[in-house]
Amino acid sequence: ETTPLLADLHQRFPHHVPLNLAVIPSILAENEIHAGHPERALKLLEMTRPYDFCEFSNLAPPFVRANAYLKLHDGQHAATEFQSIIDHSGVDPTNPKHALARLGLARALVQSHNTDLARKAYQSFLEDWKNADSDISELRNSRTEIANLL
C-alpha cells in the first residue's frame, strides 16, 4: 500500500523515472517484506531491474530483492542478487549496501548449504568491517553466525 509520502512524491515528480520505477517500488517492497509478504515484494520489484544500478536507486532494488529471496529461503536467487551488488562496487562506492551484500551473500550461501563459500563471505564481510563499532548489530550477528558454521 502506498503511503501518503510516496503518493506525494509520485504526484510531484510523475516523470522522474528512477524515483517512480526504482525508489518507490523498493520502499513498497521493503514494506511488504516487513509485513511478511516477500512474494509480493518480488512482484513489485519486477519493474526495477533496468534501474538496479542507476545512481539514484541507492542499490535498493537488488538489495531488497535479495532480502525477499532470503525470506523465501531461496538462497540461490538471493546469492545471485547479493553478488550482483558486489560485482558493481563502482556504483555508489560508499554505500554500506556493498558491505552488507557480503553479509547477505554469506547468509544466502548458508541457505544453499554451501558452507565453505559462506565462511569465506562472512570472513570478507568481517574484514570489511574490522574497524567498525563492535556494537553494530550486523557485526555482532555475523560473528555469531560464522561461529555456528565452525
How would you describe this protein?
It is a single chain. The protein is an all-alpha fold and 150 residues long. Helix content is 68%, strand content 0%. It has 8 helices and no strands. The N and C termini lie far apart (42 Å). The model has no long low-confidence stretch (mean pLDDT 94).
> Average pLDDT value?
94
Unreliably modeled segments: none
Q: Which structural class fits the helix and strand makeup?
A: mainly alpha
Distance between the termini: 42 Å
Binned strand content: under 5%
Topology record:
Blueprint (H helix, E strand, L loop, with lengths): L3 H9 L4 H18 L3 H8 L14 H12 L3 H13 L9 H15 L3 H14 L8 H13 L1
Helix pairs in contact: 2-3, 2-4, 3-4, 4-5, 4-6, 5-6, 6-7, 7-8
Search tags:
mainly alpha, 8 helices, single chain
Give a short overview.
This protein is mainly α. Helices cover 68% and strands 0% of the residues.
